[in-house]
Structures are given as structure tokens and as C-alpha cells.
Amino acid sequence: MLRRPLVPLLVAAPLALAALTIHAPPARASTFVETSVEETARVADAVVRGKVLRTAARWVGGRIVTEAEISVASAWKGDPGERIVVAVPGGRVGDLAQRVSGAPTFQADEEVVVFAARAGGGRWGVAGLALGKYRVEAGQARPDLSGVRFETRPLALGERPVGAMPVEELERRVRAVR
Q1: What's the CA gap between 164 and 150, in Å, rounded?
Q2: Would you tell me which of 36, 79, 98, 161 could form a disulfide with 64, CB atoms 3.0–4.6 Å apart?
Q3: pLDDT of 85 strictly over 80
Q4: CATH architecture designation of domain 27-175
């Protein structure tokens, strides 16, 4: 009977595992606690419907931040003025890009509803990240929840979880929040 040395197997197994780990695709999901539209509206300082005029990414320390300037067609909550600039993590500067799982993205000429939160120094962020930005198309408002997982929990009676719905329903729910 031919006996093979155990040492090569003990070395090869961890190397094979390391190779699989190194070449594994990165995780692209964020986990959020299930939230209602009403809860998101309560934590937002302003909720606006408008059109993205332009986006611009820049370095802030060692990370990229994208700012989206939005022309406000209507304010459903708060008084943000005629235009609002919201900053979100991630974006592209030159040949380098950073993608942040769970962060919303914006495109010029996109019609949106944004739940905005004051970030200090006159700046705004998006309340709830991906949960606080809806794209509006053909009367429907849809958050981009791709790559988002939810930890489920009971919501308050009559409240609706963040998700696709008619724009009129989204507006009614936001305006009803006190």
C-alpha cells in the first residue's frame, strides 16, 4: 500500500480555502430594519419631489461623496427652498469609483422623491439611505432596494413598509405624518 505524506494535504487545504476566499465575490447587500414610509418621513427634516439637475462626485478625506442638486417641484414636509443639494456616500472621481451598498444613487434628469435630513453646515443627506430615495416613473414611486435585506419587525397599525407604490399614496402618507 502506497502512503502519501499528510503534510502536503495539511498545507494544500488551507491554501485552497484561502484562494476561494480571496477570489470570492464581495458581499453586496445591506441589512436594514424594516421601516415604514411614515417612520422615514418622521425622521426626515424635509421630503421633496423634484428633478435631479446635476450630480458631482468629490473626495472627502479618503472616501468619495456624490452631491445631487434637486430642483424642488413640491415640498411634502419642511421648507427646503427651491433647490436642495443632498450628499450620498460613493460615486466616481476620474478613474476611481466607490460603491456603497445601501446608498442611493442619482442621475441627472431623474424625477425623484427624497426624504432629506440635515447633515450640519447647511448640508443635507438622505434619511434612511436607499429607503429615503424614490424614483418616479409613470405615476409610480420606487426605491432601489436591490442588494437590500430587511430584518422584519411589526410596523405600526396602518403604516406601510418602504416599497413601490403610486406617487399619490406616497405623498398622502408623508403629508399625514405629524
Answers
A1: 15
A2: 98
A3: yes
A4: Beta Barrel (2.40)
